Amino acid sequence: MTQKGFTLIELLVVVAIIGVLAAVGVLAFQGFLKNSKEVCAKSNHKNMVNFTRVTLNNCSINPTITLLDRNGEDVVRDCSQPGSQWDGYMRDHFVGSGFRSCDGSDTAIPIGRAHHTYPPVGQTYYSTDNVANWPFYITTCFAEEDCKRDIVYWTP
Length: 156
Hints:
By secondary structure, this protein is an alpha+beta fold. The protein has helices at residues 8-61, 83-96; strands at 64-68, 74-78, 124-128, 136-143, 146-152.
């Protein structure tokens, strides 16, 4: 008499192999997620710094400039406004452009916070000081203990 099917040992071996493969896959996926969040945060930071430089330089040349508001609508901004006003204009532009936190929370960024504080990993803080040359501080943490702060100066 021939029996069709698998023995209990064969089934246990297959289940053990699937378990090992799943564990390896989960670990690899977690490493991939961490790396992708870091790359995302670095890209957001670089784009915000570059856009801030270009926009403030253009505003030093032109009387007005078109940015986006928080809802993504075009709005003409007066370049003679003080840096404290431009802090809000720039943050609104980034939010209206769809910038999102890289920490998985889908929080709109940048977040206005004092420049002496560091954000959680994957988020960006954006602020300015009411001092000469209007320094704009853009601070992002890419990973634990790996944060970067760029300062863009503006002389209107």
